[in-house]
Amino acid sequence: MPIKSSLTIMFEAPFWIGVYERYDDGQYEVCKITFGAEPKDYEVYEFLLKNWSKLKFSPPIKSELVEERKINPKRKQREINGQLQDRGMGTKAQQALKLQHEQNKLERKCKNREQKEAEKERKYVLRQEKKKAKHRGR
Hints:
The protein contains three helices and four strands, in the order βββαβαα. The protein has about 140 residues and is of the alpha+beta class.
């Protein structure tokens, strides 16, 4: 199964963002990268080299990669120009990013709940110790 990846950089006010999509072994994953000002080509390349291991991809979605056939160079150039005019994310990318966002939200809720319970338990233990100390006359 071929591996394919693409990086699309677009402007979503007020930031420039990159949508990195990859197809690998029937799996589709996407990652959103936020840049500040408009990044230069070498800055994007440098960012990917430095932060590749830190990128958080969405959970994989089953997807079939359509085999590409040989395309006339002029037609290919017209398609590239059309993609440059199209500023939106593909619906698959949007779904994958939404799924990743929901997953992050659930993780955050879980972590916050655990922290609240730990704090509640700590306060309870402190109250019990205070009661014991009071009972002993200290």
